[in-house]
Design a protein that fits this description.
Layout (H helix, E strand, L loop, with lengths): L2 H7 L3 E3 L2 E3 L20 E6 L9 E2 L4 H6 L11 E2 L5 E2 L7 H5 L18 H10 L11 H9 L9 E3 L16 E2 L3 H8 L2 H9 L7 H24 L12 H15 L5 E6 L8 H25 L1
Helix pairs in contact: 6-8, 9-10
């Protein structure tokens, strides 16, 4: 299946270059105060170019072993899901999730004429563009542009990181990036930060400087809301000791606290595995699987 058919079959709708996925459409008509009772979208980005064939292994296909003589995963090591495919042996933590029906796999999703550049491929992935199309906005950002015109603050979409990915940036709306809500709250309530905001409001009507001050004001308001809403919740679940698991723990905290956030975005990097792939990818997939299993268990508990 090529990406165009995938978008069509999964209900993506197009308006010019604007793509808004259908699985986010039910959120459009909802008031923000209803969102705490509704489902959230959590996007997990595996950065660096994960090897999909060694993640969901087609062990029942002889071509897989013919073409991958040195890095193919042996059939007896695969966590078998059916007679044709199974999971990487380091993804044991997800087998129970799959068996319980909480997980599904979509195979053969791609786009025509794939670009071999990591940087360009990341742009295509995060913007939802064709390989010969160059966009400056991300697919989540365009969702915010299309459906969040009344959203005053960027916490409608939160990325648990120090910087905001292109996927989260729209033309007029964007998400907010933060790793530690308490730290962001302290920084935005620093006396110097507050003094700058109070003393330079006359710049709000200026183009570039006005944009900067509006961003600072939005960040301060978002930081206060996120910290004051989420600080009351303490997870009782045990997570693995990894940065990725900590991101998911933060998302669980936000969801369980009832933040009026529609989309969360987390990432696990390091998948640019040109050497020693079996060990490197295996370790990363173990982090991913154990983190996701803990995250889902935490949400189910709460």
């Amino acid at each position: 299946m090529n990406r165009r058919n995938f978008l069509r079959n999964t209900g993506f709708v197009a308006a010019g270059s604007l793509f808004v996925p259908a699985f986010m459409k039910p959120l459009e008509a909802m008031a923000l105060d209803e969102l705490s009772l509704y489902k959230n979208l959590v996007v997990v980005q595996l950065s660096g170019g994960n090897d999909g064939l060694n993640t969901v292994v087609p062990f029942g296909n002889d071509i897989y072993y013919q073409k991958r003589k040195s890095i193919a995963i042996k059939p007896e090591e695969v966590i078998k899901l059916n007679d044709m495919q199974g999971l990487n042996p380091n993804m044991q933590a997800l087998q129970e999730i799959y068996d319980q029906g909480w997980m599904t796999i979509i195979n053969d999703v791609g786009y025509p004429n794939p670009d071999r550049s990591h940087f360009r491929s990341m742009d295509i992935w995060q913007t939802g563009s064709d390989s010969n199309q160059f966009l400056s906005t991300g697919w989540i950002g365009r969702y915010l542009d299309s459906n969040c015109q009344t959203c005053k603050f960027p916490y409608t979409a939160i990325e648990v990181d120090d910087s905001l990915s292109l996927a989260m940036k729209g033309q007029t709306k964007k998400g907010i990036a933060l790793k530690d809500p308490a730290a962001l709250y302290r920084n935005t309530n620093d006396p110097f930060f507050k003094a700058v905001l109070q003393s330079d409001k006359e710049h709000l009507d200026e183009d570039n400087l006005g944009y900067l001050y509006k961003t600072m004001i939005e960040t301060q308001s978002s930081a206060s809301y996120i910290q004051n809403t989420s600080k009351i919740y303490k997870s009782q679940s045990t997570y693995p000791q990894s940065g990725f698991a900590n991101q998911l723990k933060t998302v669980s905290k936000f969801i369980s606290s009832g933040l009026k956030t529609r989309v969360y975005y987390v990432s696990l990097s390091g998948f640019d595995t040109h050497v020693n792939q079996l060990n490197q990818q295996g370790n990363l997939l173990k982090q991913y699987s154990e983190g996701m299993a803990a995250f889902l268990k935490d949400l189910k508990t709460n």
